[in-house]
Amino acid sequence: MHAKITLLLSIVLIATLSCTDSQKNIHEKHQDHKLHWSYSGETSPEHWIEIEKNSDCGGKRQSPINIIHKNAIAVKIQEDLKIQYTPTTLISKVENNGHSIQFDFEAGDSITYKDETYYLKQIHFHEPSEHKINGVIYPIEMHLVHVNKAGKITVLGILGEEGEESQLFEFLESFLPIEEGAEKDIHQKIDLSSLVLEDKHYYSYGGSLTTPPCTENVNWIVFKEPIVLSVQEVLKLKNNMPINNYRNEQPLNDRAVTYHF
């Protein structure tokens, strides 16, 4: 009889512990899901500081910003920025990472900024634009992310306005639609020199990545003159990304913005 009672108690205890562990696992999974950043609801940009504890999202040098032209320090364009885009660079793949459409590149194109070489790693999009110029929000913003051998980052921000069709965007969008979480191998040439960035005026400032972990000490170059693409091209990108996948404007604090003309 004693043995039966002991066995029964053991079974109850195991069942209780199993149930507790199961509930704990469910809770932890729920917490993990909740803690993943997004662009809406409880995990929207306003909450990144709370949910991304080990990030720079609460720093004093964050991006994007509203660029006020009259407050920028104007300097003549010198040799700070050299863009070495060629017609032979290969796109490796395109992916929908749930936050944006991203095109990854094989080794090839690069830029030189302040005597350091940065290699083009990927291009992604935000709709509408993250950076503003004099408070103006553009329909779309393209980020060309470059990394040097030491891991430092320089991002070219190109604003887009609606108008005529863009052959470059037609090419990029020929690989869409793509479902969230999916990717496609491409391995095709693309000519980014068609952007003609060498002839454009630009703003520069020190900022951060605009998505978690919001890494600071990023060189930002935002071109003053927007590129032109059609309404249909804007909509096609928009339909493949989360609605309003932009981070809210960040304080400039004690940073200076330079205008290169």
UniProtKB/TrEMBL annotation:
Residues 35-261 form the Alpha-carbonic anhydrase domain. This is Carbonic anhydrase. It is an enzyme of class 4 (lyase). It catalyses: hydrogencarbonate + H(+) = CO2 + H2O. Belongs to the alpha-carbonic anhydrase family. GO terms for molecular function: carbonate dehydratase activity; zinc ion binding. It comes from the Bacteria. Keywords: Lyase, Metal-binding, Zinc. InterPro entries: Alpha_CA_prokaryot-like, CA_dom, CA_dom_sf, Carbonic_anhydrase_a-class, Carbonic_anhydrase_a-class_CS. CDD domains: alpha_CA_prokaryotic_like. Reversible hydration of carbon dioxide. Its EC number is 4.2.1.1. Signal peptide: none annotated. The keyword Ribosomal protein does not apply. The keyword Ribonucleoprotein does not apply. Its cofactor is Zn(2+).
